[in-house]
Amino acid sequence: MNEIIRKRKSIRKFDMTILDSAVLESVQKFINDLKPLFPCINYSIEFAEKTKGLFNIKAPHYLVFKSETTGESYENIGFIGQQIDLFLAENGIGTCWLGLAKQIDSGNAGLPHVICMAFGKPAEPLYRDITAFKRKPLKTISEGNDGRIEAARLAPSGMNRQNWFFIGADGKIHCYRKKPDPISGLFFDKLERIDIGIAICHIAMESKDFSFSQKEDAPIRKGFIYVGTVA
Q: Does 3-120 match 134-230 in CATH topology?
């Protein structure tokens, strides 16, 4: 498994030293070269110095994700953002998804706000041992056999809810997110759509030739919404 997936963690204490301009330029270059899950969905990623909101974390830098809100826009942002998360962790930079934070100023006008990510030099250990992950067992989030599902199991999720399910069959992984109930859906639906995008990113990192599509004949999973299939 990808070494960073096995040891990454969300950082909540940051050294407030501003990162070197060359480092920030490398982050921008990586962003420019990202491959989205749904290429037809319009999105943007902006740098910000401050954010506000519940459970906000003080950090020297933030990324603000914006997107049109059509179709699988939130799943797309999760997939895109987690590529950045893993890239930064691999280069010694800490990150933390901020589900309820927003940009203080309006930034570039246009696309609606989706989510933020704090990043910077960590003021706590950047990595953890795989035994420190608190995740549901594979048997409760999946069926069938495909080693890539373990990478998805280790993915971060809002409030660590892990409300996803995977079916491995014939070299494919069918990906699902839990169907929201009327009450919790008001608070968690967007985050859990981002979460499944994050998990699919982890599967992509473990795939030799990654492809993703939505199949009309995908298995039905009661209580879950089908998102798509990784080949």
A: yes
Domain spanning 134-230: which CATH class is it, in words?
alpha beta
pLDDT in the model for residue 191:
95
- Does 183 have pLDDT greater than 80? no
In whole angstroms, how large is the CA radius of gyration of the chain? Answer: 17
Q: Which CATH class is domain 3-120?
A: alpha beta
Which of the 8 DSSP states describes residue 158?
A: G
**So what's the pLDDT on residue 108?**
62
3-state secondary structure of 143: strand
For the record, the structure tokens of 103 come out as 């940009």
With bands split at pLDDT 50, 70 and 90, how would you rate the model's confidence at 106?
Answer: low
**Per-domain residue ranges for the chain?**
3-120, 134-230
Q: Which letter does DSSP use for residue 219 in this model?
A: P
Task: Check residue 98 and report its DSSP letter.
Answer: E
For residues 181 and 204, give the distance between their C-alpha atoms in angstroms, rounded to a whole number: 29
Q: What angle do CA 170, 171, 172 make, to 5 degrees?
A: 95
